[in-house]
Amino acid sequence: MKIEQNRKVGIIGDGQLALMLANAASMLNINTICFGSNEKSPASYSTDVIIGDISDKNKFNHFLQSSDIITYETENIDTTAIEDALLKNKISPNLDILKICQNRFLEKNMLNSLGIATTPFRNIETKEELYNNAKEFNYQCILKTSCFGYDGKGQVLISSIRDVELAWQILHKQLKSGLIVEKKVNFDCELSIIAVRDNHGHIEYYPLVQNLHKAGILRLTLAPYIYPSYANELQKQAEDIISTVMNKYNYIGVMCIELFKVEEKLLVNEIAPRVHNSGHWTIEGCRVSQFENHIRAITNLNILPPEPVGYSAMYNCISSMQEYNIVSAIKAMDNINTINLHDYHKQARDHRKLGHITLNTESKDVYMKNLQKLNAIFQLNNQ
Ligand code: ADP
Ligand code: MG
Predict the structure, then answer these.
(1) How confident is the model at residue 380 (pLDDT cuts 50, 70, 90)?
(2) pTM for the complete prediction?
(3) Strand (E) positions, 47-120?
């Protein structure tokens, strides 16, 4: 059953991912409506937003009645409230996978049960358990909230026995929604893979990309990941991982899996059951972006091969739109086919993602030369 093109996709959330989903839908002549919390949210610049709290039944029902199919831009949502309210609306990706991906402990257990490797982790319920497990991990571990974390929030690094007490002090109040401690991975680099699956079980894969983080926040994505001679085998490994999860849960839509590369093996860090920041480059860097393919999948349109074009780099603008001197970054470019600035219209705040720039070129030489210049401007040399 195809949904008619004048019907509406309801998006839970009104941030930049919702904005980019709404833009992609509009290019396909599909209408959108968001359920959000903010008068001047990024999505409000592009589509209608109903403002309210998910627990407000009247508001949420109004949103559901205005939509034919529901999707979401964040996994941090109250699934109980949604489950109670959803009657005839279909939600994609489904609530089973959403509930697992909301909780790091459930997510890592699910992955391990499918034979997919993660770093060792333990559920933590008492301070004593934290001391014992941190010792087992040689005091090279991270205490994390199981739920609601994003952009490195809700995480404390433990590097010695002295850090254990402090980590407990900082996070023990969030015990109710769960805590885990996980072994710190000495990775060579961080990668991610994005794929899209339709309701017939067909999957299209985007190429592996490399991600650089600072203080837990994504700063730079390099696409595709091109460096080692065995990059093709890594791509195959990543595709096996993501297809195993998608097929198991009869997943419909875009998924992203964040990975740690340790020599020739991939460990899963976490799953995003949605479009992802490390896929923003696909707007200019692919013939079909992650946003378009997500809308296609959930509305029963054909999903399409991504067809990457040349080489892309995506820089997040964090804390301030001026911080990185975007103008000088653009001026420094040599022969760049395209450099695009995306402003999310958000108020500046420390550690907040306010926009991104993507550079894209078909020449590897031009790409490498410009990357060096941009890395200097974006101060990414001392990772
Ligand atoms: P978030 O939900 O905030 O993205 P992540 O678990 O992905 O949380 O952590 C953010 C970043 O912190 C990761 O991309 C990585 O750079 C670092 N990190 C998280 N867990 C580990 C780990 N076990 N070992 C090494 N680095 C880690
Ligand atoms: Mg992450």
Answers:
(1) low
(2) 0.95
(3) 48-51, 69-72, 90-91
